[in-house]
Each structure stands twice: as structure tokens, then as C-alpha cells.
Amino acid sequence: MNKRNQRAFTLFELLVSISIIGILTALGVVSFSGAQKKARDARRVQDMNLVQKAAEMYYSLNQYVYPISGNSGEKWQTDSGQTVLESFPTDPKDTDDYVYSFTPNKPGV
Predict the structure, then answer these.
(1) Which of 65, 79, 92, 101 fits 40 for a cystine, CB–CB 3.0-4.6 Å?
(2) Contact, 62 vs 79, CB < 8 A?
(3) Within 13 Å, how many C-alpha atoms sit on residue 31's CB side?
């Protein structure tokens, strides 16, 4: 059998192919992590809007008094027992780096 008729990839062709695949994978990972960060930031903004609306609802239902405080996982109820916020939101990344809390400048004002 003649060696010229054999079909195979050379070592150089394999190295180039593996390099291209590695570069494309690295670009995909960077792009994906950026998208995850944007999604977490959007969720944080949404959570803060939820807390703002719940505080305003609490204020209007509880004789024009804001809640005293709020921490992750805490429930807000009015004096009449109506639940305004079932559970205070937690950070999407769920680490100690970001902790949500609510403390008005003057309690009850």
C-alpha cells in the first residue's frame, strides 16, 4: 500500500483545530459570564422596586407609618395582620457580599 494514498490529519492541522476550539470556548465563557452578571443586576433592581412598592403599601395600610426595618427572609405585616411582603428578597448570588436590608432614616416616619 502506498503511503501517499492514506488519508489523515497532520499534527499541525490538529493543533490549529484544537487552538481554534479553545479560543471559541474562551470567548463563549466570557460572554456567558457577562450575561449572568447583567441578569443578576436586573434582578437586584427588580427586588429593590419590590421593596419600595411594599414599603409604600405598608405606609398606606398602616396609618401612614413605614416599617421599622427589613432583612433578608423577613415578612412584613401591618398592625391589622395583613401581609404586605411575604418574604424580604435575598440577593440572586446568595453570598454575604450583598445583603438586602431596609432601615428608614427615622423609624416610623
Answers:
(1) 92
(2) yes
(3) 6
What length is written for the chain?
109
To the nearest 10°, report the CA torsion of 16, 22, 26, 31.
Answer: 80
pLDDT, one tens digit per residue, over 54-101 is 989 989 998 888 887 777 778 888 888 888 888 888 888 877 777 777
pLDDT in tens, 29-47: 988 988 999 999 999 999 9
Instruction: Cite the beta strand spans of the chain per DSSP E.
Output: 70-71, 76-77, 83-85, 101-102
C-alpha cell at position 106: 427615622
